[in-house]
Amino acid sequence: MLFLLISALLSGSEAALLSLRTVGLTSGEATDPAVRRLQELLARPRHLIVTLQLLNTLANVGAALMAVVLAARLAWQVHWPPVLVLLVELLGVALVLLVMGEITPRLLAGRYAEPFARRMAAVVWVLQRALYPVADALVRLSAHVQRRLRAPERPLSPDELKALEVAQDGMLGEDERELLAAILEFGETTVREIMVSRLDIVAIPETATFGEVLACIRTSGHSRLPLYAEHLDNILGIVYAKDLLPYLGRAELDQPLNWRDIARPAMFVPLSKRLDDLLRDFQRRKTHMAIVVDEYGGTAGLVTLEDVLEEIVGDIRDEHDETEPVLYEQLDEHTYRVDARMNLDDLAELLGIELDTESFDFETLGGLIFHLLGVIPEPGDEVQYGPLHLRVETVDNHRIGQVLVRVEPTPVAVRKNGAES
Predict the structure, then answer these.
(1) Which residues form the CNNM transmembrane domain (predicted)?
(2) For residue 170, is it within any domain?
(3) Is the pTM of this model over 0.70?
């Protein structure tokens, strides 16, 4: 029982301390002796783990040796086959150590990490100080072996990342879990899901004057602008704002420049291109922007390196992003006024409902309404999809603007301007 108790306390201490290393202490001051000891222990995580693992192994070995002694005595007293008694005894000890000495203490300590760690801080601190020479030697030895056996570095595959997420469950903080989830989804996301729509592209025609281009750069805040001839389906290249610096004070504002010579070559990618491949292409070609084309070669949108990185780390704000566009407004408990550009996954998360977005070939609320109605909507058109009642409020140049979204328990028929269809 003593060895079992020691094993349980050491396993719980390891789980609690490693959990604190991830999330940190939530209370206590630096003058608190327990806090100081915990900070000192967590400052050397490798030595801490080696110390606890060493003591835990010794406790488990002690329990196994006691089991062997008891099994030998029992076999001698009752005249049972020693091998059979020893086998049963070892299986029983292994099961008890696994459940009572490893799994249960780790689960309990992980749930109550800080109070458990505070109570064990003094004991573990003394043990680590006492065993520091041994632990330090083992840490150095393991580092040496690791360097000798280290395989050539390579990127982790999606399956390896998923296995890492499962293995580290409960050990990662919320931010780490979100980042790992974003990385797992990154390779499965296509350009179509993150691109800037064709209608939102800020571009310049080759007939634009120098002054018009400067004004466009100032108003948009973009440092790279696509250059086109006649229409957006004929992209000639990308004009960089820094390439215009030599012309300041020398070129006439009301005269066009030879934009084809100034523009840099544009990079074109298909709608179906995955983000991990796109990121590698950006790195290889040393560019930050790509024009997205559809299956017919027409311009479908635009994607930048910032858009790609935001899929992993979240929104990246700069001096031109002072105000974040508001895509929805809650009117009451079940009703929202939503911008039709809102992503369907974000809408489902906002409303707390399930939408089978994987089966769609569109990404936004506006795309869903076009799909359901089958025609260009007009203000006042209504449609039901599952629990969602959608009413188009504004339409500008065949583009849906604001939509009134209400979560309803039962579906109704599709209606157009109040009349059932």
Answers:
(1) 1-176
(2) no
(3) no
